Amino acid sequence: MQPKLRSFLAAAVMAAIAALTFVAIASGDHGHGRDEGHGGKLFRSSLAPSKPAPTDPAFHGVTPGGVAWSLDRGSVKISHHGHFDLRLKGLVITSTGTARPVTTVSASLFCGADGNLTPAVTTGQVPISEQGNARIHQQVTLPAICLAPIVLVHPNGGTTRYISVTGWGS
Where are the domains of the chain? Predict the structure, then answer.
């Protein structure tokens, strides 16, 4: 083989190896993202405020709160190792502009078909400000499998009503 052709092929092979290495590193999840130390993201979703029936349906036997709620911003992230992080900003009753009489919130993770009435996980209660700001930052024990996950946010320690749910809406 001619020296020029051999040099060209060697350079082409090295370039291909470098490109494949870059793609492998760039596409892999090596745990160095924002959830480092918490096992990486397993589930992530925005949250939507609830509206009373018939607008919003019941999920897993849990019905929407009795009044319409508004939400500026809300999200939930759950890691492989059970790090549960839910944030609410401006979750208020639409007609009053305040979260009161709700003073605490908790959240439940449901898995599977809507007929499953038992949550896989329910967090402890945390305070919610009058302006509707709250954060649930807890460690939970997750099931090995969770198909069709949905998170419901409950008012005042109850689990029969929800005031926010995974999804989006105004």
Answer: 1-30, 41-166
Task: Give 77 or 37, the one with higher predicted confidence.
Answer: 77
Question: Of 1.10.1200, 2.60.40, 1.10.3430, 3.30.70, which CATH number belongs to 41-166?
Answer: 2.60.40
- For residues 122-136, average pLDDT: 98
Q: Which residues pair with 23 in a beta bridge?
A: none
Under 8 Å between Cβ of 102 and 163: yes
Token output for 83:
């790090």
**CA separation for the pair 108, 18 (Å, rounded):** 46
pLDDT of residue 11: 44
Q: Over 45-108, what HEC string results?
A: EEEEECCCCCCCCCECCEEECCCCEECCEEEEEEECCCEEEEEEECCEECCCCCCCCCCEEEEE
Burial 149-170 (b: 16+ CB within 10 A, else e): bbbbbbbeeeeebbbbbbeeee
